[in-house]
Specification:
- With 176 residues, the protein is α+β, with helices and mostly antiparallel strands.
- The protein has one domain.
- The protein is built from three helices and six strands.
- A hairpin with a 2-residue loop joins strand 1 and strand 2.
- The chain is elongated and about 115 Å long.
Length: 176
């Protein structure tokens, strides 16, 4: 009689060696080192595009405010353009022309504000406005500084914010 052969399988442990794991981690780190700066640049570009869009919105809101409330003229603060309190109607104190995020003065990594020296009315009517936008954290949330005025032209500059003391946007930047 023939003896039955025992079939024994060798159990070998398969897995990754430490060297293989270190190589995979190194590849992931190299890819991350390449991708992260591009991600940050795209975030800055998105924030800057949002700032320009917000300034366009503010131009429209200022013109609408001036047309709706001719005895006041242009708004001298973002809160005047913002939404009215719940249950109240729009007025020259809260016109409801921009959302509460923009009215708060900070949106998408940029800080917005009406340049204060432009709020000097002629015959109690504000005849001009200048609005500035600067990155909350320069170099991180944005690179460029923006402004716009009654001309509707949005301008930028790379070296610091538009001066709040002069209150002029038309002389300091490059039009977009």
């Amino acid at each position: 009689m023939k003896k039955a052969k025992k079939h024994t399988k060798k159990h070998s442990k398969k897995g990754f060696s430490l060297i293989e794991l270190l190589i995979v981690v190194a590849i992931i780190l190299i890819i991350a080192a390449i991708a992260i700066p591009n991600l940050l640049r795209s975030r800055i570009a998105a924030n800057e595009a949002s700032a320009v869009g917000s300034l366009r919105t503010l131009n429209t809101a200022e013109v609408t405010f001036n047309t709706t409330y001719p005895s006041v003229g242009f708004a001298c603060s973002l809160t005047l353009l913002g939404p009215p309190a719940s249950g109240t109607s729009a007025s020259s104190g809260a016109a409801g022309l921009i959302d509460s995020n923009l009215a708060s003065g900070v949106k998408s990594g940029y800080s917005f504000g009406v340049l204060s020296s432009t709020c000097q009315p002629a015959n109690n009517i504000n005849t001009v406005y200048d609005v500035g936008a600067q990155p909350v954290s320069p170099g991180v949330t944005g690179q460029r500084y923006f402004c716009t005025d009654g001309s509707g032209v949005i301008q930028y500059q790379a070296a610091g914010p538009f001066s709040d003391s002069t209150g002029v946007c038309s002389t300091g930047g490059t039009p977009i």
